[in-house]
Design a protein that fits this description.
The chain is α/β, with parallel strands linked by helices and about 450 residues long. The protein has two domains: about 5-55 and about 395-460, Urease, subunit C, domain 1, CATH 2.30.40.10; about 60-380, TIM Barrel. It is about 30% helix and about 20% strand. The chain contains twelve helices and 17 strands. The strands form three sheets. Strands 1, 2, 3, 4, 5, 15, 16 and 17 form an eight-stranded mixed beta sheet that branches. A six-stranded parallel beta sheet has the order 9-10-11-12-13-14. Helix 4 packs across helix 7.
Length: about 450
């Protein structure tokens, strides 16, 4: 039976990258947007859900989620991660290939992930595959890349430095160079953790020699200097210039890289860039000693650097924002020395309000939020034909957002497996009121009204 959803602020698509907020109604039939009509132009026989002044946005997409299942479900899992994502306004997440066991580096591993996810996902999901090196001068799973694409992987993730888990071995630049022609031929994006280990090893060695106090955040920050990112990005741009594969820089933390990335994009190189809520909303100056809930890699840098990232977002050099939701059990993140704690920040349920709180102060609009969390992520993940915008014929995936609402982050609002967050106690502006997947509420009134019915989108890619 058809149903109508209306609001005084519906974000409708306009010529990219803009969007237009207007009074409108979505008529949904069998989970699909059948019509978009004037606010009051609803046939009498159709039930209307009126959201008033709450903004009706396209369903949001997180392209950088560590779900960790199978194998490390005690860290996180499909049920808890997608529940938190639904509470955060996301209707789709793209799962990273590491921290799960086995890592998603083969079709067999992808099938194991699908089996593990069955019946647990509150929202839709699809996987990134992993590109790995075996520790010598070759690329270990190069022959698996095309089968992974055929099986539905949206693209690939690799590291140029040890990723924290043994199974997804990092690549040297020489190994990545060998993989580049295959990546270019397949046409899928390569997501790269862009830090080189040389500057980090040198800085860390000096700090240990000085007997630095690792409970101080300044010590951890000094151990991962900007140059680790800069040298990696510089080398990656050269590889893209030579081979023209699609490169996506994940979690950019240093604003010093913005000029070279802007120049590379102006040159027409196929490069996209993401940053994360923690880099935009927390600064090094406010991180207390021992506050390992703020540890991530690359590290959160200073306030001036943060403002440079915001400027890059405004200028379009940074294309999107992704959570890099990377949870772990509490015992892996004890307060104290930063070198002993797991590096990762969980934020699926808080990312949108955290960003909106800071974006609104800087004059950004809800249109920017949609660009960063819907339009650009859909394009990166190959979902633009069905997601990222509200349009007739598309799945009725949408997020109801109250941009003026004020609320305080507490543990019961996090919803992921372990209630660890650097945002606990913060008062935020903007609240996710409800999240709809194919016309049905998966999150509403701080609850989850239906059993999980999210889909594995990779099957239809």
């Amino acid at each position: 039976m058809a149903q109508a959803f209306r609001s005084n602020r519906v974000m409708l698509p306009q010529p990219q990258p803009a969007a237009l907020m207007q009074r409108a109604t979505l008529i949904v039939d069998d989970g699909v947007i059948a019509q978009i009509v004037a606010h009051d132009a609803v046939p009498a026989e159709i039930e209307v859900v009126d959201f008033g002044d709450h903004a009706l946005l396209p369903g949001l997409i997180d392209v950088h989620t560590h779900i960790n299942q199978p194998g490390r479900t005690e860290w996180e899992g499909f049920e808890t991660a997608t529940r938190a994502a639904a509470a955060g306004g996301f209707t789709t997440v793209v799962d990273m290939p590491l921290n799960c066991l086995p890592e998603t580096t083969s079709v067999d591993a992808l099938e194991q992930k699908r089996i593990a996810a069955k019946g647990l996902a509150y929202i839709d999901w699809l996987p990134w595959g992993g590109l790995v090196g075996p520790g010598d001068d070759s690329t270990s799973n190069l022959d698996d890349l095309e089968p992974l694409v055929e099986a539905g992987a949206a693209g690939f993730k690799c590291f140029l430095i040890y990723p924290g888990c043994e199974g997804l071995t990092h690549l040297s630049l020489a190994q990545l160079r060998r993989a580049a022609p295959t990546l270019a031929r397949l046409g899928k994006p390569l997501l790269v953790h862009a830090e080189l280990e040389g500057p980090i090893l040198e800085a860390s060695k000096a700090l240990y020699a000085q007997h630095a106090d690792w409970s101080k955040y300044t010590t951890y920050l000094a151990s991962r200097p900007d140059e680790a990112e800069l040298s990696a990005i510089r080398a990656l741009i050269e590889l893209v210039r030579e081979f023209r594969f699609r490169l996506h820089i994940v979690h950019l933390a240093t604003a010093q890289a913005v000029p070279m990335l802007a120049a590379a994009k102006a040159e027409g190189l196929p490069i996209t860039v993401e940053t994360c809520p923690h880099y935009l909303c927390i600064s090094a100056e406010e991180i207390a000693d021992g506050a390992t809930q703020c540890k991530c890699a690359p590290p959160i840098r200073n306030k001036a650097n943060q403002e440079g990232l915001w400027q890059a977002l405004g200028d379009g050099v940074i294309d999107l924002i992704a959570t890099d939701h990377s949870p772990c059990p509490p015992e892996m993140k004890p307060a104290g020395p930063f070198d002993k704690a797991w590096g990762g920040i969980a934020s699926l349920s808080t990312a949108i309000p955290v960003i909106w709180t800071e974006a609104h102060k800087r004059g950004f609009a809800l249109q920017d939020l949609v660009r960063w969390f819907a339009i650009a992520p859909a394009k990166l993940a190959g979902l633009s034909a069905t997601q990222g915008e509200l349009a007739v014929g598309r799945p009725a995936n949408f997020t109801i957002f109250a941009p003026e609402s004020m609320w305080t982050v507490t543990e019961h609002r996090l919803h992921y497996r372990h209630a660890i967050s650097p945002y606990l106690g913060r008062t935020l502006k903007g609240e996710v009121v409800a999240t709809y997947l194919r016309g049905e509420p998966v999150f509403a009134e701080q609850d989850f009204p239906h059993m999980p019915h999210g889909r594995d989108l990779s099957i239809s890619l």
